[in-house]
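Please fill in the sequence for the structure shown.

STRUCTURE ENCODING:
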């Protein structure tokens, strides 16, 4: 049966790459380095955290596509949730609850959340010679801000985060932060920040880099230009990779789509491609795409021989996530006077309040005959705002008594020693 691709479906290949993040969550055999010294091996993962990440990812994707229908979209839910989970360690009261609810982590205690993210980071960085997956975290703090050691310690201990204190007024600081991004995405994403806002006091940044070789590579000699059918009804010639082989696949006649799993390396990670029938369309499929259906579909893949033809493609995507995250329920974290990040810094000493100024996300992916290379960066920028002005007359002052109707000053004086 000939099932055509329609319009914007090319981005679905890329979107489904994020599923590989979750595909390897049950393997705890990989060791991810020396930076987490205080956690005993092996590190446990609360399956509720994995489920929460899946739900959050699909919720966020659905929220983004509401304003970007018929456009390429590519995000890393894990990168976004990791940066926000680090930020969650500094949130209190209603702000903490709103962020936890948005991340689908409600009802889970902070220790379980932190330990599970540590375990995920350990498990996902697999020891497969055909797959490279690195997850790096960092905190960049403005000099002179009284950040709490407990907040910093949790993020270094559980997230392996590097912590640096810098002079944000120094132009070199922007270069330093962006160079960290460039290094930890293997040059795929050169920068995440264009400027440092004068009110910025902290950046919590996650970077993920992935490079996987197909378990069975495509022969470049079999790549030919083929017709890609756009949603507008137009056609576009694109290089199509083809091969016949045994793949785990799934077909849903009721929902009118077929799907295939393309494994990398030893098969722990795969790209999943969901292709709506030619008589259906991508938006119809996406209306039914949610965490519950995803889990159900994942259980129904089975191996069979398939003739496979998919396009080579490269996507670059960036998005400020403030609006989608506020729509999902964490608006209070962005509210200058209402946000409560009192576990992050000593607000009384600071004399200002803290809030999330912006959540920035960039992601890139390239798919070719050899495999897939992808990277993502998420930055949560914390800013300060003045608390309600304080007026404490505890030193000599001038005063006056004025009639505001006639503007007549009736009395004036100074108080030097009351």
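FILLED IN BY: designer on duty
SEQUENCE:
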């Amino acid at each position: 049966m000939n099932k055509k691709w329609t319009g914007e479906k090319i981005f679905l290949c890329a979107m489904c790459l994020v599923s590989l993040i979750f595909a390897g969550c049950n393997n705890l055999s990989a060791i991810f380095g020396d930076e987490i010294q205080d956690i005993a091996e092996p590190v446990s993962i609360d399956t509720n955290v994995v489920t929460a990440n899946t739900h959050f990812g699909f919720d966020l994707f659905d929220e983004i596509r509401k304003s970007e229908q018929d456009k390429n979209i590519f995000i890393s839910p894990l990168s976004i949730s990791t940066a926000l989970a680090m930020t969650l360690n500094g949130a209190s009261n209603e702000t903490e609850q709103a962020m936890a609810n948005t991340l689908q982590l409600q009802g889970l205690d902070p220790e379980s959340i932190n330990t599970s993210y540590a375990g995920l980071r350990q498990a996902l960085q697999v020891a497969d010679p055909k797959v490279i997956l690195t997850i790096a975290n960092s905190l960049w703090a403005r000099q002179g801000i009284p950040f709490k050691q407990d907040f910093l310690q949790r993020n270094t201990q559980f997230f392996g985060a590097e912590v640096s204190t810098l002079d944000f007024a120094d132009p070199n600081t922007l270069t330093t932060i962006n160079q960290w991004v460039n290094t930890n995405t293997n040059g795929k994403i050169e920068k995440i920040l264009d400027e440092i806002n004068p009110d910025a006091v902290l950046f919590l940044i996650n970077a993920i880099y992935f490079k996987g070789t197909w378990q069975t590579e495509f022969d470049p000699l079999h790549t030919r230009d083929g017709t890609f059918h756009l949603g507008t009804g137009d056609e576009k010639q694109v290089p199509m990779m083809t091969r016949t082989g045994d793949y785990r696949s799934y077909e849903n006649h009721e929902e009118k789509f077929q799907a295939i799993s393309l494994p990398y390396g030893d098969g722990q990670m795969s790209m999943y491609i969901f292709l709506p029938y030619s008589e259906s369309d991508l938006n119809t499929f996406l209306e039914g795409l949610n965490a519950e259906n995803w889990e159900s579909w994942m259980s129904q893949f089975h191996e069979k021989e398939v003739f496979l033809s998919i396009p080579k493609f490269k996507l670059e995507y960036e998005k400020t996530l403030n609006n989608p995250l506020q729509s999902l329920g964490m608006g209070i974290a962005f509210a200058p006077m209402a946000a409560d990040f009192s576990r992050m810094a000593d607000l009384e000493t600071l004399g200002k309040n803290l809030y999330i100024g912006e959540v920035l996300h960039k992601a890139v992916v390239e798919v070719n005959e050899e495999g897939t290379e992808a990277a993502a960066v998420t930055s949560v920028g914390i800013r300060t705002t003045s608390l309600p002005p304080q007026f404490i007359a505890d030193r000599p002052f001038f005063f006056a008594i004025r009639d505001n109707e006639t503007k007549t000053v009736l009395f004036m004086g100074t108080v030097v020693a009351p």
